[in-house]
Specification:
alpha+beta; two-stranded antiparallel ribbon; Arc Repressor Mutant, subunit A; elongated; 9 strands
Length: about 260
């Protein structure tokens, strides 16, 4: 049945918009990403990013938060969720022409997921246990991710690595009062490489408004026998962009050309 303007949806092939979410946190000494095991075809039994179809009466961000909660049980959290990129290669989804708006978030203290909706399972995966194009060496035994989610996830890892270059976000993964060594561990975890302690300290202290010393007594670092380390805290006046940035070394896990 044609509309008054003569438009008939049946004259056009089906087309849909989806959302995919790359949600990261730091736990158990590693950079973790949230994945779900698909319960339905296509790619039944494969691991994938949480996500799904945008409903006709909702906006993109609302759909992203809804799908995250439906598939993993994780409710909307305080961490920043932002659009990463749009993926629309023909054939990326065998059901129909599907364009996905991918999102990324990096937040501390995220809970364990609970599978729901069309997810058979949900869990945090160590990024180093996944085989991602352009990042690191091939990982034997790594699961093949559904759709083009390996490409999306590789770009998301790079976005998170860049976030802590230019913003003070890394301090959110430390205690309220922390040592420079504890802050360095966050950077090493996200970037997948070891950093020179002296150079890192010089960079952090030399970055305007990033951290500031506390008046608390120095604390001995766990596993270190040297003298106690001075305590710092996030500078509450810190700008949203660090100047100068804390730049990734050349051997960091994420590759900037994937951005």
């Amino acid at each position: 049945m044609k509309s008054p303007a003569g438009y008939d949806a049946r004259d056009y092939p089906p087309f849909a918009v989806t959302v995919d979410l790359a949600i990261f946190t730091v736990r158990d000494g590693g950079l973790k990403v949230l994945l779900i095991e698909r319960a339905d075809d296509p790619h039944r039994g494969a691991w994938a990013l949480p996500g799904g179809f945008v409903e006709i009466a909702e906006d993109i961000e609302t759909a992203a938060w809804r799908e995250l909660h439906e598939e993993t049980g994780i409710a909307r959290f305080d961490g920043h969720l932002e659009q990463l990129a749009t993926y629309g290669a023909p054939g990326r989804d065998p059901r129909m022409r599907v364009v996905s708006v991918a999102h990324v978030a990096f937040a501390p203290n995220l809970p364990d997921p609970q599978a729901g909706s069309d997810a058979r399972n949900a869990r945090w995966w160590d990024v180093d246990d996944l085989d991602l194009p352009g990042i690191g060496e091939p990982v034997e035994g790594a699961p093949a991710l559904a759709f083009d989610h390996a490409d999306i996830l590789a770009a998301a890892v790079d976005r998170v690595a860049a976030k802590i270059e230019y913003t003070p976000l890394a301090t959110a993964f430390c205690p309220p009062q922390f040592t420079i060594g504890e802050l360095r561990h966050v950077y090493e975890t996200v970037w997948g490489t070891r950093l020179d302690p002296s150079n890192f300290r010089r960079q952090v202290v030399g970055t305007l408004g990033f951290v500031r010393p506390t008046e608390q007594p120095a604390r001995r670092q766990r596993g270190h026998s040297g003298r106690p380390a001075a305590l710092f805290e996030a500078d509450p006046t810190s700008p949203r962009t660090l100047t100068p940035p804390i730049m990734r070394p050349a051997d960091a896990r994420a590759l900037k050309e994937l951005s």
